[in-house]
Amino acid sequence: MDGQSISKRWLQALQRARLNDLYPDSRSLERYFRVWSAGDPPPVHPASGAPPYTAWAQLRAATQAAGDGSLVALDAMTVALRYRRDDAQGFRVHLDKCALNGGWTRTSLELEQATEAATWVTAEQLTAAETPRLRALVYRLADLDAELTFAALAREPGIRVQRVTRGTVGPAFAGAEQAPPGLSSSWQQDAWVASFGLEQVDIELARDRDNDPLRPWFVQRLSAEARAQYDQARATRDYHVHRDRKWVATGEMLAPVKAYCRASETKNLVYPLERA
Amino acid sequence: MSARASNDVLGALVHQFSDPFACLREMVQNALDAGSREIDVDVRFDPGAGRLVLDVQDYGEGMDAQIIDTRLTRLFSSAKDGDLTKIGRFGIGFVSVFALEPELVCVDTGRGGEYWRVLFQPDRTFERLALEEPVEGTRVRVYKPATEESFESFRLRVTDVVTRWCRFARATVRVLGKRINRNFHEAGPCALSHRDEDGHIVVAYTTDRKPTAGFYHRGLTLLERETFIDHVDVRIESPHLEHTLTRDQLVQNDKLHELLERAEDLSAGLVDRLHTLLTEQPEQAPHWLAWAAQSCQEVGRVPPAWLSLPLVKLVSDERWTLRQLQSALHDRSVWLVNEPSPLTERMEGDGCALVVCEGAEAQVAQLCKLLAPGRSVHELGEHHGITLPLDERRAENLVPLVDALRALFEAAGCPPASVTARSMEYPGSSVRWEAMLAVQDPEGIATLPDAVPGADRSYPPLHWQLNGRKRDVQRLSKLAERQPGLAAYLVLKLAAVRSWTGEHDQLWLAHARRVPCP
To answer: Which of A54, A148, B39, B395 has the least CB density, counted as fewest CB within 10 Å?
Structure first.
């Protein structure tokens, strides 16, 4: 399947996936795919099923050079003040980031900073901004999953992490060879399937729930070092983790995706790519 | 508190808003606070069951059992309390849905891998049931007895209320499948915007409706009222703005007054913005002239700063400022015209100033009265017309009919100065429907209804102009080849049918009676 067809499918998938604020801003990503759908097809990275980072960067640079500033930056951080008490301030931090393979993630943090140790976020009245220290830390952590991010933040002095979520756009699959084994066996010709993952690590969650059928597939790919980090984080944890994934699939793949989820003992939302 | 007192409090809260449909605002607010980027509002009617279903679906973070038990179903227990990133404050939004007097409320929701259905009875007791399949976000369905008639008015109210409260919501809000919200900063071509940490202010000259002042919090309407800056549409969005518990007033604070002052300061730049716009798009001048005329009429004066605006477009394509128009009203004959036409071209040759109004002649006439009290201005509307030469072929075909008309007039004892076939077909013609005109000056401008011939104006001899492009006249010209007298008679009758008033009908009938029927 060529890059232009895949761009058109991504555009449709982003409109159909009903992504909320825990995911990267779908409308911003749609603008990129709209340009690709109408113009030069981009290459597609096999790991994400989306154009790689370089393609996003080149397209943005080209449109900016043409005087069009409508395409969002490939990374952006926003900080909002949630509450302010005498002894502490609460913040919500979003970081949207395009990975090298072209997959987008939004990492959202809910943090509390002790007022006397205000080295992470500065706040004035109703607004807040990150310090270079927080910026550097969050950028570094954004490539990790939510659980490792939570564990890493919990080790930092002066902040208390309450919640970390990570909404992921992708991966998408355009062929049996890219799809996970349980799905590739029932792959149909010209099929296309996109997935949107969500990890939530929260001190208020009652228990762990893993509803992401791709999770075992990802875990198999973890390095020994990453596995060790997980084990360390879980040994001292005061949080629970919920992982989920929803899907948008071409019509012929709706039943196979549902069957794949059932076989993985997960219950996931599966939306058709095409409108009824 | 006793159970009865508790019920009284609850009842008061359910009916806290003056409009029961205000619960829709609360539901949209909850959806936005849940992080939904899309909200669907639908209303369906089930004639068999005699009930309607109001369906509000969001795709944000839903609720787990703990949130349902401790927040949704309990008053004043909002998890959002004190969270500045949320719009909701009081923890009573959801309960307002009972103001609609439903027979059942069904909430499907899910979070953290738990999926629940919560069923509320009219007395607000509820049961929570686990759902087998996952659901996205939160879906609230309100079931209410209805007739087809009451459903229709309910549906219209839902559309109206959601549009009013959510017109600038930051998420996509669809009512009955149609998006109803738009971007906050989109306020037309003549707008100015200022954004800082205190909020977002948009001021605009708006041509499509009366200007208002709107106050918003994260895109949701807090209050909309008459504007506080003459002619200027004002929108203020700020996290500092809040409405009262009853939602009908803004909480007065220093920040509000500061924002109002900033809006006023910003609006001072609109005249320059309009000047630039008119320079860049001079063809828009009549549109803005109509707006300026209407705006001035409302306040009974012309703002001095507007006098320098090049709002006036003349038929000659020349542009004038309002000050130039003011001056012309004192020393020239100023005519207000809908659009340029052969008629206006001829008038321009006579030294008139012809202002293009594109249908707003009446409003511009009022503006002229404000600019130059006591000076007269003329509206060139449906009352003026000229006739143009007819092409040779058509004129030749009409010769028998023209001759017959002349003979008829002479036979009736009122010989004409001339009878000619002319064209009355040109852009903007107000005489194209007339069969004939009777004028004293054949090259001059006919004024209706005077130019419609009447029995009392047969003398002095008039110039009769037959509309050679009118289909009925063309048909009668064929008849004139065989029965010229009858054809001429019928032309006169045709002209009578098109005469302007009942009075003229009578005059024409009298005239026709004097003409001997062939």
So the answer is: A54
Kindly state the average pLDDT of the residues B29-45. 94
User: Which residues of B are less than 8 Å from A127 in CB distance?
Assistant: 197
User: How far is Cα of residue B23 from the mean position of the Cα atoms in its chain?
Assistant: 28
Residues of chain A in contact with residue B84, where contact means CB-CB under 8 angstroms, are 80-83, 126
- Partner-chain residue, chosen from B84, B112, B197, that has the shortest CB–CB distance to A200: B112
- Give the Cα separation of A127 and A81 in Å (integer): 6
3-class SS shares of chain B: helix, strand, coil, % to 5 = 40, 25, 40
Q: Which of residues 120-149 of A touch B (CB under 8 A)?
A: 124-127
Q: Residue B456, Cβ neighbours under 10 Å: how many? A: 9
Helices B484-497 and B502-514 meet at what angle, rounded to 10?
Answer: 160
Q: Are strands B436-439 and B138-145 parallel, antiparallel or unpaired?
A: unpaired
Please give the ipTM for the structure prediction. Answer: 0.90
Chain B touched by A264 (CB under 8 Å): no
A106 SS3 class: strand
Q: A271 pairs with which residues across the strands? A: A248
Q: Which chain B residues in 7-46 lie under 8 Å from chain A, judged by CB atoms?
A: 34-38
Write the CA distances from B300 to B229, B311, B323, B336, B439, integer angstroms. Answer: 15, 18, 17, 20, 40
Cα A69 to Cα A62: distance, rounded to the nearest angstrom: 10
Contact A242 B59 (CB under 8 A): no
The tokens describing B357, both together, are: 């109004």
Q: Do A20 and B85 touch (CB under 8 A)?
A: no
Q: B34–A125: do the CB atoms touch at under 8 Å?
A: no
Q: Inform me whether the C-beta atom of residue B130 falls under 8 Å from chain A C-beta atoms.
A: no
Cα separation, B447 vs B384, in Å, equals 5
Residue type, A197: G
Sign of CA dihedral A151, A152, A153, A154: positive
CA dist., res. B352 & res. B331, Å (int)? 11
B61/A124 CB distance under 8 A: no
Instruction: Judge whether B241 is closer than 8 Å to chain A, CB to CB.
Output: no
Dihedral through CA B253, CA B259, CA B260, CA B263, nearest 10?
Answer: 180
Question: Contact at 8 Å (CB) between B308 and B321?
Answer: yes
At residue A34, the 3 state secondary structure works out as helix
Beta strands in B319-408 (DSSP E): 319-320, 334-337, 353-356, 378-380, 384-385, 388-389
List Cα–Cα distances, A211 to A30, B230, B307, B348, in angstroms. Answer: 27, 58, 68, 79
Structure tokens at A36: 């690709």
**pTM: predicted TM-score of the whole model, two decimal places:** 0.77
Q: What is the dihedral of CA B1, B4, B7, B8, to 10 degrees?
A: -90
Measure in Å the smallest separation between the Cα of A94 and chain B Cα atoms: 13
Q: Using CB atoms, which residue from A22, A126, A244 is nearest to B113? A: A244
Per CB-CB distance under 8 Å, the chain A contacts of B60 are 20-21
Residue type, B59: Y
Give the tens place of pLDDT for each residue, B426-466: 877 888 888 888 888 888 788 776 776 654 555 577 889 99
pLDDT digits 0-9 by tens, A53-99: 999 999 999 999 998 888 999 999 998 888 888 888 889 999 999 99
Residue (of B156, B240, B231) closest to B201 by Cα position: B240
User: Tokens 């509320």 — which residue?
Assistant: B120
The C-alpha of A123 sits at a distance from chain B's nearest C-alpha, in angstroms, of 11
10 Å CB burial of residue B283 (0-12, 13-18, 19+) is: exposed
* A267: chain B residues, CB-CB within 8 Å: 132-134
